Amino acid sequence: MDLVIRGGTVVTAEGSFAADVGIEDGAIAAIGKVPGEAPAIDASGKFVLPGGVDVHTHLRLPTDELPDRLYQDTMAAAFGATTTVLSFIESPRGGSPLETLRRWRAGAEREAAVDYGFHVILTDFGERAARDVPAVIEAGCPTFKGFMVYDELRIEDADLLRAFRLTAERRGMMMVHCENRTLLEDGIARLLAEGKTAPRFHAASRPPLLEAEATYRAICLARAAGAPLYIVHLSCREALHHVREAKAAGLPVFAETCPHYLVLADDRYEGPDEDAARFVISPPLRARSQHEHLWGGLADGRLDVVGSDHVPRRLADERAKGITRFVDIPNGAPGIETRVPLVYDGGVIGGHLSLERFVDVTATTPARRFGLARKGAVEVGKDADLVIWDGDAARDLVQQDLHHSADFTPYEGRRTRGVPVRVFLRGREIVTGGKFAGTRGGGRFVERKLPDLG
Amino acid sequence: MDLVIRGGTVVTAEGSFAADVGIEDGAIAAIGKVPGEAPAIDASGKFVLPGGVDVHTHLRLPTDELPDRLYQDTMAAAFGATTTVLSFIESPRGGSPLETLRRWRAGAEREAAVDYGFHVILTDFGERAARDVPAVIEAGCPTFKGFMVYDELRIEDADLLRAFRLTAERRGMMMVHCENRTLLEDGIARLLAEGKTAPRFHAASRPPLLEAEATYRAICLARAAGAPLYIVHLSCREALHHVREAKAAGLPVFAETCPHYLVLADDRYEGPDEDAARFVISPPLRARSQHEHLWGGLADGRLDVVGSDHVPRRLADERAKGITRFVDIPNGAPGIETRVPLVYDGGVIGGHLSLERFVDVTATTPARRFGLARKGAVEVGKDADLVIWDGDAARDLVQQDLHHSADFTPYEGRRTRGVPVRVFLRGREIVTGGKFAGTRGGGRFVERKLPDLG
Amino acid sequence: MDLVIRGGTVVTAEGSFAADVGIEDGAIAAIGKVPGEAPAIDASGKFVLPGGVDVHTHLRLPTDELPDRLYQDTMAAAFGATTTVLSFIESPRGGSPLETLRRWRAGAEREAAVDYGFHVILTDFGERAARDVPAVIEAGCPTFKGFMVYDELRIEDADLLRAFRLTAERRGMMMVHCENRTLLEDGIARLLAEGKTAPRFHAASRPPLLEAEATYRAICLARAAGAPLYIVHLSCREALHHVREAKAAGLPVFAETCPHYLVLADDRYEGPDEDAARFVISPPLRARSQHEHLWGGLADGRLDVVGSDHVPRRLADERAKGITRFVDIPNGAPGIETRVPLVYDGGVIGGHLSLERFVDVTATTPARRFGLARKGAVEVGKDADLVIWDGDAARDLVQQDLHHSADFTPYEGRRTRGVPVRVFLRGREIVTGGKFAGTRGGGRFVERKLPDLG
Amino acid sequence: MDLVIRGGTVVTAEGSFAADVGIEDGAIAAIGKVPGEAPAIDASGKFVLPGGVDVHTHLRLPTDELPDRLYQDTMAAAFGATTTVLSFIESPRGGSPLETLRRWRAGAEREAAVDYGFHVILTDFGERAARDVPAVIEAGCPTFKGFMVYDELRIEDADLLRAFRLTAERRGMMMVHCENRTLLEDGIARLLAEGKTAPRFHAASRPPLLEAEATYRAICLARAAGAPLYIVHLSCREALHHVREAKAAGLPVFAETCPHYLVLADDRYEGPDEDAARFVISPPLRARSQHEHLWGGLADGRLDVVGSDHVPRRLADERAKGITRFVDIPNGAPGIETRVPLVYDGGVIGGHLSLERFVDVTATTPARRFGLARKGAVEVGKDADLVIWDGDAARDLVQQDLHHSADFTPYEGRRTRGVPVRVFLRGREIVTGGKFAGTRGGGRFVERKLPDLG
């Protein structure tokens, strides 16, 4: 053995037990009594978790002004107990998904601090996409995304249907952002016409009905195509209703929610404009009464995954450009570093989730559904992506302690129980004692297998 | 290490992976790469499963005529890949549950071939029961059963409510046989009045409506008491509907089905009386259209466990007594040896369950829900109750090859894929090459922890 | 024509239209343009409604101390726009339903101010009941009642099942009071043990769960018997859920609610004991959030009827006896005079019901479901039971203005829109200008037809 | 009185009773005992029904080749017990709805044999539509239609939303043809690509999923706009599910089915191409198992109306043009003359509907929902549109006995019970003894009121 983590309590999606974890060649080689003289790390009194898997991030390639941002955001992942991230990458309309993938692979190569992969965003589905998609799947990126809204990103229903069909033939999977464009555009137009342009009107422009409609439509299109469907950032019981019915009908429909829908609510829009602006996320924060439905869905399996929907927004840039209207604010908020701690604190400490289910929704199930065959579980043969987790320690989430490339956190000042004290990527320690111990470019591109839909 | 099982594919409720399993002092000490010179067993090309856990059996104490039957039935369990059995034991009305437990512990002590435990059947809930129940829980038997029907066994609703409340206070759990007595007695009386006494009328006497009503009533009583509820032998979608609604409301309601409801149907009552008599089980075999609902329920978690409801009936005895009317036939059928193979064959080979979910419903979840903290999973620290399973081999289930103390099997001649080739109990091999390699009395009474309801 | 009501707006369950109503021989002989010189009454600016039908009352036979009470309560009905009342009459356990009916027919004969009929309460179902029930149906009383709670009144499930079956064979119908006895007795015992005896604990002793369970059980028993079922005084959405599912399954299940569940709530138990005591009604008043479910159910047909559950309680008597514990208080409250006004005010003025649906649930549907073939509608051939209703007038409901034999009203001081200004029974005016214009004994026993279940 | 129909059994949505019906100035002036010496018609032994109201027809204006077709189809309505028809009229994209209405009013003026009105089909919703719609409502046509499919007719979602909003502001109502265009076009393209062009592939191109998706989307758009919604020709339980949920949520959503979905099934597509071609209707005929859901929906109010979706197709023309591919066949089939008889025969004789509900769904509710204030009921003050109906007589539906302008009937040879023997329009007899007794142009344009949504 190269390294043994001794004396901790191993947590899997299935159970928790005292065991040493032996690591060899970057993989988990033994669990239990691990003899020998290998170097040892003490985890007594702590949990040993699989490294988190965040399948929903929006990383950015380095630019001259921000040469470090991909490095920073992946390092932030590590500090947040996440050792694998999948990022959406956008294939412009009419462009080549394969070319997009090549460009990103090259751009990320010497940057990432944790392992990573990509989902290509399909904005249309013409000949080029039809030709490229099989190659992209072959290249280890079997999942794609379609947006049902946004001018530049939206894929029309007819193309979405084709995307469902072709990806399903190749045993890939579509992820879909479900909101109804017609209602959204109408809502925005009406608010603007009434002079309601402040950030606090963001939520009013996209109520749960928009999400419910689009969720059901996406399910119908996927069903017609015989395709699986992964619904990103589900935020409300109205949409969850359709997921439940789809699952009950035996359809391979999966759904993700995000920490901000679990712990924040629409009262955040009531503050001053510059505070409200931080929460311009889509779907928007919902009524507090939605929380119990989402936690309940995570607990009983109607919801499968918690993703971060991390967007490294910089408010300073927006201020510099004089952006004030909610429609002009780039949607999103950072979350890559806070995802795992918030689910532990809100879910496990909050009494909504068992320790095992917490591991399941933040690591095990996302790994399985996205073809990350070597990730997401403390299991022999998996990569030794491990986290030593102090379940009792508490800290306040504050921007100045975080590592992402965004310049704020939506959780400023929030006290959370649960702290990752040491983090390992393929057996090498990358976070220790509050310091980054890995290397820029130490994260590898993961050639993913096909999604496990069972 | 005392023993290493090498080269197999370990299956847990969560995943499957190639790993050695190291055993020390009867427990699983290491999983993965297990170095050293310990004796090794080759499991290459085979699955390594946790020993099955059958929480629903009706064992019988030895008598002069049948001195071997407890031994035989527990040996049969071992041959059927099951290494822990929990048996119902009946506390007569007004009797002492604790005394019942003592009598059984003494009677089983030198007999059992696999590990075992008991659930006391509560037939009333007066002062004696109130006094004894905490002591029985203390003694490692935290689960009890109530029957809503049968003259000798039935517990009245008021006592059932008290039982729910007191067991819940002590963090135990009630298991309930749910059928409506009023409708059952009425149905029987009407059939008898019409001269419909043959075994084939058994099913007509207790249609799904009886089970649905009682299932909902039991849920309501448990809910009022703030108690968990385990519904035994659920057989139909009508009852499953209420379980689903209870789970959706966040109640700790669990449900079990049995192999005979999954693979047999009510066409079995159409044969000659002596054939039909074999299937006088309650609830009765249902319409074939129920199968998909039950498999679906197991797959998606509305159903939690498959138990055998093993009853070591002897048709010869019934024939000797001249029993012919369905109401006189002792209900039940043997199943302790066929449970795991039938769920594998019907579920995994039949395409209804993943390999992991098969392990979950036959071993992992029953262990967790019944406080068998060291059973039910291939996990470090658990007892080394292990099965080397040949997933490809097939055989015909026939009475002459089976080992139980009953004199028939309801599955006579049924071909099944999946054969347990070697079985280990706490690290000692008890079945090998089709021979029993354990010892009479080698099974131990398990002092169970409190049920894990999370 | 003997009389013509001219110039009003006739309201039926189906529509409203300007029309004269011609009366001949006590029946509605013509609607529309009614020529001729018959005496005329002016109804211009008013609604012409069918006389209300109250199928849920508990009248009392005269006694020496209270020789007028049946007269008073039926007169109160007339003042409340109700011209037909059906009263429950109790057949003691082991007694003869037919004898009970004879006694009541004799006792009521010279008393009633409006037309009336009876439902016999079946407290058991032995030979006597089996023999009498067909005769009681023949005698024009095809509907019976069973209580699932109360020591003296309760019918056991087995007898209830027999009652369902026999009444259904004769095309009669059972009405059932649905609460779970086991949970009720347990709840009461626990409250008393804690010294919680004040009236305000009444509601805590019988929460919605009790009603939901018993409602579903009654539906199952009726279903098994192939019988229709009329659920009295449904008070909560938990029970309504089962009614909706039963109706969706095509079962002949009907449900009634009462004004107090529609306009009062459990905050009434929070006052001083003597105030709270007025509201000791079963099922108890519920949370205010239930109101919308009940109004919604009435509007869309999940609920069929509003009955009053009129009980002519006299608080003075209770005070004289020193009754203070909630368990000793005779359940019930007066409502025969306030039912129709409260449904109009709460439903029509409150925006929950159309004018037509108001007439439907207070007159037309109760008449149809209870075999009152000549009652409940302004329709040619029906009895000329008519009400001239001022939809705009308002008044305060106060005990001193009411006419019932109770000594209080639960609605003291409540302002209501809608006043019956003239009331006709079979063409004769019985209320006019706030005075009783009918006669003691002017109400007739109605020999009812079989219920219309279509 | 001008005329009295004596001795019949009047049927309303609420009840049935023996009564004379007196007619004066074309309206129902009296019901019941109608004295006087007015001319009388004997209806003894027969039902007196309100004239049917068919709100879903596609009439055609006269052309040189077919100068009589509007006359023929409205005469056919009369022969089929229908005295008011509403026809869709198409406003070409960018055209003026008001101009369309003017053209149709002029073209129909001297043709119609029964009373009539129009719904303008909105194919877009630009400035012209926004300006015209209020005027069209003012002109007595408060209901409009949107198609979610068909190249020439389709309205885009954004325009549909605007149409919902503006019509709702003026208290009008949109009717929507709900099928998903994306899935339809995809299905057609795939079938054509496989050479599946025969009429029998029509159903495969538009399965229930398409209808379910679009039904839910239309409900969501209407809900967002605060608008009522009338769903035309609902054909399957998958769509009905959404209607039920919408109604349960208290939304003003109404749904119509058609006789062909109630009595015909998709086995009709299995015959020779020329037979199958007759059934190219959209939505297509469904599986026979759908029938019970639709009848059940009509019985319990989830479905509100039966419309005919009458299209006067002429197969001869299609043959002349050599049309053979299902995509080229003009969708639709005649039904104006057979609607009422089929609902009576299938519903009342078939045991699914009461006599009253039959009248309700074919006359009373359609009149109410479409602002036909003087139509649809045998009620004082309504137009004397009456049908004397022989409920026992039977006949075979055959093309040579029918009067419509189509050259076939989908019900050829079907025996039906129930025959309209005399039909009156505003008091004048228009069908008698199997002969037309009315006049060309005797039908009047009805200026409709606003829909009654209560």
What does this entry look like structurally?
Four copies of one chain form a homotetramer. With 454 residues, chain A is α/β, with parallel strands linked by helices. Chain A is built from 13 helices and 19 strands. The relative contact order of chain A is 0.17. The model of chain A has no long low-confidence stretch (mean pLDDT 96).
Oligomer: homotetramer
Helix content of chain A: 25-40%
Radius of gyration of chain A: 21 Å
- The low-confidence runs of chain A, each spanning 5 or more residues with pLDDT under 50, are none
What is the tally of beta strands of chain A? 19
- Per the principal axes of the C-alpha atoms, what is the gross shape of chain A? globular
Strand content of chain A: 15-25%
Write down the domain tally of chain A. 1
Q: If strands are numbered along the chain, what order do they take across the biggest sheet of chain A?
A: 8-9-10-11-12-13-14-15
Query: What is the number of helical segments of chain A per DSSP (H or I, 4+ residues)?
Result: 13
Distance between the termini of chain A: 33 Å
What's the name of the CATH homologous superfamily of chain A?
A: Metal-dependent hydrolases
Report on the biggest sheet of chain A.
8 strands, parallel
The average pLDDT score of chain A comes to 96
Largest interface: A-B, 37 and 36 residues
For this structure, what is the CATH class of chain A? Alpha Beta
CATH architecture descriptor name of chain A: Alpha-Beta Barrel
Broad structural category of chain A = alpha/beta
CATH fold field value of chain A: TIM Barrel
